[in-house]
């Protein structure tokens, strides 16, 4: 099973004339900042920030074709909005693990 929807990724790659280096670098930096933000907001019980950060990571991940990661972020965002986010730290660990897989595939598929 692939972590990336390659059709989405390849469509974006075509739009960028094959040069994804800037976008991938920006995604790597931004996603690391968003993970740090999620860690801080979760440890501080800041549900509003958790929802906002999860939404941002969901959107940027989906734009690159990282649909499984986007689904995990969507769950965090939705459950936060519904006040049913029972174990955000556990969900964050799943997000971090999926993000690592996504970054590996992005690197592989950009060569």
State the gist of this model:
The protein has helices spanning 6-15, 21-43, 47-64, 67-81, 88-109. With 111 residues, it is an all-alpha fold.
Describe this structure in words.
The two termini are 20 Å apart. The protein has helices at residues 6-15, 21-43, 47-64, 67-81, 88-109. It is built from 5 helices and no strands. The model has no long low-confidence stretch (mean pLDDT 92). The chain is mainly alpha-helical and 111 residues long. The chain has a single domain, classed as Four Helix Bundle (Hemerythrin (Met), subunit A) (Up-down Bundle).
Find the count of extended strands (DSSP E, 2+ residues): 0
Mean pLDDT: 92
Find the structural class using helix and strand composition: mainly alpha
* SSE pattern, N- to C-terminal: HHHHH
Strand content: under 5%
CATH topology annotation: Four Helix Bundle (Hemerythrin (Met), subunit A)
Low-confidence stretches: none
Give the assembly state of these chains.
single chain
Q: Which overall shape is indicated by the principal axes computed on the Cα atoms?
A: elongated
Distance between the termini: 20 Å
Tell me what the CATH architecture is.
Up-down Bundle
Helix tally equals 5
Domain module count = 1
